[in-house]
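Feature request disguised as a bug report, sorry. It would help if multi-protein outputs had a clear separator. Right now it looks like this:
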Amino acid sequence: MTENAANGEPSSPGTSATIVVGATSKPGSRRAIEWAVARAASTGARLELFSVIGGAVGAVGEQEVVQRAVDYEEAF
């Protein structure tokens, strides 16, 4: 989906945009969320907020979480 640069509205009639925001505990994240909420409300866009739990790649304990996810996926 593309946006009309002039007003940020979805460019195709009948389509809907999705605004995706990564949420953290940082002040900038809160401002981004506030902007996204206002933008979604004004344009009718769907809003998705995402947060990541844990540390950076390679953080202590990560392997166990990754292995559980792999095991779960392989079970199906």
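(second protein starts here, but nothing in the output says so)
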Amino acid sequence: MDGFISKPTTRDNITQEIARLNIVKRDKSSHTVRLASQKTPAMDPRLMMLMDDQPLEHESVERALRDSDWRLESVESGEQGLKRLKSLTPAIIFVDQNMLALNGISTIEEIRKRAHLDQTLVFLCTAGNATSSMVAKLERLDAEYYPKDQLWRDKLLPLLNELFGDDQKRLAG
């Protein structure tokens, strides 16, 4: 939640809260509210985000990417990741299912609400197997499942090359 408005609501406290969030600006001469232009960050075709509450997972991914041209943005929770995604548009996001406050599926639901991330590939990662209901939810969210034990051990770069290769047309389009 970015803010709140106390009851009773008035035109002034609604306008002040919206202005505080930098979503709109007020035209003082006519007392109307207009939408401000929203800047969304352009996709960074070599940026990966990892949302995982286990520091060892961050280290494993850093090692896997060491000799590549990929950059890693690591966060320790879904909440931290969602905050960072206000100013970043990575090409790919890996989200751990078993984070404490906001689990992976809930985090992906929030990611998919953001229009600037509609071309970002999103993977749910977990140490266990995905259930059929998880897979169905991921399909509805245009996300995929990848088991952690396979991903970080010599499979991350081959996966990235398969998905992105040298052809960045999907990202530019």
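Even a blank line would do. Unrelated, but nice: Residues 21-38, 167-173 have pLDDT under 50 and may be disordered.
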